[in-house]
Amino acid sequence: MTTLYTFTDSPVGELLLTGERSAGGTTLTSLTMPDHPSIPADWERDDQAFTEANRQLSAYFAGDLTHFELPLAAEGTEFQQRVWQSLDEIPYGTTTTYGALAERLGVPRAEVRALGAALGANPLLLVRPCHRVIGADGSMRGYAAGVERKVQLLTHEGALQPMLD
């Protein structure tokens, strides 16, 4: 199966979307925020294949969309899939902690690091909102696209107050 891709600009930087053709259009397999992406030679650029994803991303950044409705097919272990799916339950404009998420998923305290690793491996940034998971003390712990982008996204959603310059 050919991997399709496109780039789109956003308030948090350039986004790289990848997907695969499916009966209903394009199934999104990743959304990342690369600084200098290298695209494998066998990938095919198809901007039109991501029209709906781009529409929803634009609506999100305009403040008109709080939950993405896209076909998703990210590859990961059974545990990662379970963690990533649980992110869909964190409401827009709110945050949860690693510990609270672990408790909700029945992950023992000793395995919270595994939960953090699964969050760090989330290939669908924004769409699967791992940026809404923070430290118990309110700290902005890790984000694959950088903590500063995590702060930008949480501020955009109203979960954090804007910083005055």
Notes on the protein architecture:
The protein has helices at 51-61, 78-87, 98-105, 112-120, 147-156, and strands at residues 4-8, 15-22, 25-32, 44-45, 96-97, 133-134. With 165 residues, it is of the alpha/beta class. The chain has a 4-stranded mixed sheet, with no helix packed on it. A two-stranded parallel ribbon has the order 5-6. The longest helix is centred in the middle third of the chain and has 11 residues, at 51-61. It is globular and about 45 Å long. It starts with a strand and ends in a 9-residue tail after the last helix. The mean pLDDT is 92.
Order of helices and strands: EEEEHHEHHEH
Average predicted confidence as pLDDT: 92
What radius of gyration results from the CA coordinates?
16 Å
Task: Outline the low-pLDDT stretches.
Answer: none
How do the strands line up in the largest sheet? 3-2-1-4
Please tell me what the overall shape is. globular
Reported for the largest beta sheet, the result is:
4 strands, mixed
- What percentage of amino acids are in beta strands? 15-25%
Number of contiguous helices: 5
Chain-wise SSE layout:
Blueprint: E1 4-8, E2 15-22, E3 25-32, E4 44-45, H1 51-61, H2 78-87, E5 96-97, H3 98-105, H4 112-120, E6 133-134, H5 147-156
Parallel strand pairs: 1-4, 5-6
Antiparallel strand pairs: 1-2, 2-3
Produce a short descriptive summary.
The protein has 165 residues and is of the alpha/beta class. The protein has 5 helices and 6 strands.
